[in-house]
Inverse folding.
């Protein structure tokens, strides 16, 4: 009988997996049997994570990709396909969460946030889908958005929340475009996770509903990884165009 969370023989490409939530996602997928390719702008940190995974007995590799740059995405994905074959799983995790108040908003800040948080997942999804369709074996695409979309906001998140909301729209449309190819597209909404990116985010001091501590405690990167594993697993073969919040119970308080 097929183990419903077994990813043996599958390759997963996780963007922004050199730190933060991406590390937890990569660990969980690797433990489920996947070969995990870490795509990150920081190749040295990505390689360090590869070494940690391989030291634990898992299969892993790294590729340098700037998700906001089309040429980098195309070249990087081609490198992955040439080295590992077409990944069956893509996790669009790379993102920025700096803050800027709407009254102080600049086009430069807006464009930078959406280039990484929205343009990047679009480009990665396009290249992944092309490779998956050519492979003819279906696939899984999982976007990492944010519980900001269900109210877990702090001030200064106009660009961030807009960019993450666009991922839900991208999932809706691409799930329909790709369903005939057996490719599912789903979205995870992480709640508060104390990552280096969150702690080091630039902008006004965080103030707002997201400061309320969730009753089940702050999320860990591996909690987000578990939700990704569900969407990526054989157990979710009939699940597409869905959104799952992992927020420690914040939404019920």
């Amino acid at each position: 009988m097929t183990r419903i969370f077994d990813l043996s023989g599958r390759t997963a490409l996780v963007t922004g997996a050199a730190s933060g939530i991406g590390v937890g996602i990569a660990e969980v997928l690797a433990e489920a049997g996947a070969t995990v390719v870490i795509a990150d702008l920081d190749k040295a940190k990505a390689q360090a994570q590869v070494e940690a995974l391989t030291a634990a007995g898992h299969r892993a590799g790294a590729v340098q990709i700037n998700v906001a740059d089309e040429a980098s995405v195309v070249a990087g994905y081609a490198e992955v396909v040439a080295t590992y074959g077409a990944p069956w799983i893509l996790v669009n995790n790379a993102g920025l969460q700096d803050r800027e108040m709407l009254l102080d908003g600049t086009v430069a800040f807006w464009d930078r946030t959406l280039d990484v948080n929205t343009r990047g997942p679009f480009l990665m999804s396009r290249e992944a889908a092309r490779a998956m369709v050519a492979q003819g074996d279906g696939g899984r695409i999982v976007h990492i958005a944010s519980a900001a979309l269900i109210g877990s906001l702090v001030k200064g998140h106009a660009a961030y929340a807009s960019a993450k909301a666009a991922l839900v729209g991208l999932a809706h449309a691409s799930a329909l475009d790709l369903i005939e190819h057996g490719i599912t597209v789903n979205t995870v909404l992480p709640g508060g996770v104390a990552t280096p990116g969150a702690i080091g985010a630039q902008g006004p001091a965080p103030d707002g509903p997201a400061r309320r501590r969730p009753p089940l405690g702050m999320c860990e990167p591996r909690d987000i990884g578990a939700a990704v594993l569900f969407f990526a697993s054989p157990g979710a073969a009939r699940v597409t165009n869905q959104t799952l919040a992992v927020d420690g119970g914040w939404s019920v308080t």
